[in-house]
Amino acid sequence: MTPPLNTLGLSNSQTNPPPVLALEFPRRSLKKGDTLYYAGDLADTVYRIEEGLLKLSIDLLTGKERITSIVGPGDYIGGITPAHTYFQETAEALSPQVSLTIIPTEALDGELKEQVFVAAGNQLGRLRDALEDSELPVTSRLARTFVRLGERFGHIADDKTVRLTLPLTHDNLAAMVGAARETTTALMGEMRDQGILDGTRGRYSFNLNDLSEFASESAFIY
Q: Which long-range contacts (CB under 8 A, 24 or more apart) does 145-149 make?
């Protein structure tokens, strides 16, 4: 049975980011390509994203990069799981301008601590989704990825038409679904030919219901 597509497993804190922090913490700015932290660095800081997008990734034993998540405004990343002394992934800026709030882990308390715990739960949900997707054909994985990105970052009209603008290359998308770039590019071309997906170079549009149905149907095509 194909696992249900529950978008990103988003909580209200992600679809409706919490308000700007009342407490004063320092800020940090990044430009596209800048690395915020590397996997294995000491995880003594939590970051709240105020502006822009970052990718979270791990290096596989094969030497390939696997993007585990795309994160944006309102998301907390970094040392959000107290059990881990070191960062579990590498965070790199995707947008031309990224702004983050720097929160020392010892400063986590009250509502702020609750928000970070929710972020940790959402991270676990994304990893669960990635594990479920790994058993599906690449076509289905790619379609499900677009649905989740559309739900999280797209502009959704009343008829469920999504306009999605993200600074993602085909290499990025391939690293998200665990496929070769050539395969990812070819499948996106097939989805465009079928009228399921429109656009390229980081600007896409699709119907959320149609793409979700396509993702479910293509899960049984091997």
A: 145/173, 145/176, 145/177, 146/197, 146/204, 146/206, 146/211, 147/5, 147/7, 147/208, 147/211, 147/212, 147/215, 148/5, 148/7, 148/8, 149/70
The pLDDT tens digits of the residues spanning 168-195 come to 999 999 999 999 999 999 999 999 999 9
Buried b / exposed e over 145-170, threshold 16 CB at 10 Å, is bbbbbbbbbbeeeeeebbebebbbee
Asked whether 5 and 48 are in contact (CB, 8 A), the reply is no
Q: What's the structural domain count of the chain? A: 2
pTM here is 0.85
In a domain, 65, yes or no: yes
**Three-state DSSP state, 94:** coil
Higher per-residue pLDDT: 183 or 111: 183
Domain encompassing residue 152:
138-218
79 & 22 share domain: yes
Q: Percentages helix, strand, coil for the chain, rounded to the nearest 5?
A: 35, 25, 40
